[in-house]
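User: Some background: our group keeps a shared notebook of sequences we're curious about, and every so often someone picks one and asks for a predicted structure to add to the entry. Today it's my turn. The entry only has the sequence so far, pasted here. Could you supply the structure so I can complete it?
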Amino acid sequence: MQVADKPTQTTVKPKLETATLDVGGMKCAGCVSSVERQLTQNEGVISAQVNLITGIAAIAYEPGKVEPANLAETLTKRGFPSQVRDTESTGEETPNWVTKQQQERQHQLQQLIIAGILLFFSTLGHLQHIGGPVIPVVGNIWFHAGLATLALFLPGRELLIDGWRSLRHGNPNMNSLVGLGTFSAYAASCVALAFPQLGWECFFDEPVMLLGFILLGRTLEGRARGRASAALEKLLSLQPPVARLIGKNNLHDGEGIEIPVEQVRVGELVRVLPGEKIPVDGKIVAGKTSVDESMLTGEPVPIAKETGDEVTAGTIVQSGAIAIETTRIGKNTTLAQIIKLVEAAQTRKAPVQQFADTVAGYFAYGVMAIASLTFLFWYFIGTKIWSEVLVTHAHHMEMTTSPLLLSLKLAIATLVIACPCALGLATPTAILVGTGIGAEKGILIKGGDILERVHHLDTVVFDKTGTLTEGRPTVTDCMPLSEISSDRLLQLAAATEKGTNHPLAAAIVREAQQRDLPLLTAEDFHTEPGLGVAATVETERVWLGNAEWLGKQSIELSDTVQTQVANLAQSGKTVVYLACDRELVGIIALKDTLRRDAKETVESLQQMGLNVVLLTGDSEKVAKAIAKQVGIEQIFAEVHPHRKATIIQSLQTGDWEDKEDLEDKEELGDKLITGNCSLITEPSPQTIAMVGDGINDAPALAQADVGISLYGGTEVAIETAAIVLMETRLIDVVESIRLGNATFKKIRQNLFWALGYNILAIPIAAGALLPKFGLVLSPAAAGAMMAFSSVMVVTNSLLLRRRF
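Assistant: Of course. Here's the predicted structure to add to the notebook entry:
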């Protein structure tokens, strides 16, 4: 009896889309944790990453199950005004972002001025207590009560409302803590004023001073955060708002019509005058000029441009008017893509930040619990054990306070001094500054998680062609091995190679064109990546490639040929063989120029304690020649493209056999040449950076812990890489690693400060030093310390700019 096969069940992964929300109202890491929790608890939301500084939430979701607009509406109802960012917009978001930042700074300044005025009058009322003149009215307790009321309902109103809303929704934040402390001090003072027979002390100055210090701290913090995000703001302001549209008949003269840049269409012509920014990506169709591309590459030297050259939106024309044919507009321009990458990088969290956000999510609850315990302890136990703490000396007078007021003051100070802000700002400010510095230097780092991985690197693996070398090889030798001529050999090779886009193929075709050789007709192409290509040229079947490719076709190489090839390879030349109808008819040698900074880059990496490896599909002898020039001792040669990722994985896992057996292992299939390298003699898991530029490198770039691609490389490599070097300077590999290390050190410093501050400050505010030293922190002093802690974290991140 035949049994039907049981159908296999396949799990189809849902198609995900991404959305970006602009989220307002976030004040601390607790807010970040709350927003992320509210987003991810919705069905269909796969992940959500929220950045406190930029106010952006990046969401991955399943379309059909949830709508971004509904998520934004829910967040708005919960006290976080949100809206979906329109990804199809063509430039209108740029001024909106800048305007939003300016409005926020203006609002902070207004709040600070009001608080400063109230603080000034509050201070005037206390001059008499320190031997100053007695000022009528200002020294009256009712006047101070009025000041406190104004402080709460003017600059403090927004803080109190936000704190209460967050508390009511079960997501207490920093405003909740400060609001509880401020309102408690105000309420206790009102009771003392209304019922003087209780003998309580009025401390109306505490809410005024507390709000003043907090608003001062937030203003300074906001300014510092603005400086931290200056790189992104600078990028956003690069694209000019208007473009000068011209017709095909007035390329060299005529004023043209100025229209908003978002209304320009692909194919239309735009004129740009000296000193102006280029509004769109395009190709020069008339005129010559020099262009400042420092915003893209970090290179200050202007680049000469002429007809046929491409130019990029946001770059500046230095000399000579030009006419441009538009090729990319809006979100498709290079500038827009860079902005998108930088924004995404600043949203992606470093893994270490997950810890900070987790702690911050429970922080407010913990602090409120500690404040409650502080009150209960001092009211029922502490003041009875240490009764002397109720007696204070101020202004040469001995004063006695009640257990209730002392306990309340300590509880309020505990609420106010705790700072989840410092914890929440520790990582994103450093990432913001680090990625901003990178963008200014032409180094695009695609996320905070990348910066953290860079810090843990052990090994840097380089591709050869187009990475260590310029990627523009030239034909140096064309050696017929039969009766055909050198030109005929080159013609056959060029015809066969025209079906591929490898750098060696381009060099052979280019050499044939320079010799003015007619291109022969070819068809029936077949390509084996890493080996070679076959085609039918006229009536002959031609094979062109490396020795392994010929071996697969059963084409033998004589000893004489092998000797010739060995001599060429020792001088760093790459050799390709050409066979017609399974008979070897000639060899072509090509040589690529080493990048000027290749040796310096390798030496710098080695001085940083990193292992440097060369990974190439070229022959062993060529690999050795290149490696010797730059000082690399460990080489993987003759590596097929599909094997590169496997080798990277083996380096990552440290899963190697004995070095002596490596070359004989059939499953490895690659030649390993190594000098004094502990990586192989003592196998251990490594954290790998892969530097490459070609399609063949994409799998290895994806497999590596950190993929680094040159911007001049293929789009696949750029999309796959974690770091993109906008200028083809290899030394920027070193700069990107140094930047990653420095940024991660700042993150650790910030977290150490934020955690250390709270660990020390909260017990002091709770009265840990009161019995022995008589130290009591007033709520105002606690507020000043809390504000100072946040400013310290942001300022420390900004110090990163001094190193770069």
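Suggested note for the entry: The CA atoms of residues 280 and 329 lie 6 Å apart. Residues 1-11, 87-95, 657-669, 675-681 have pLDDT under 50 and may be disordered.
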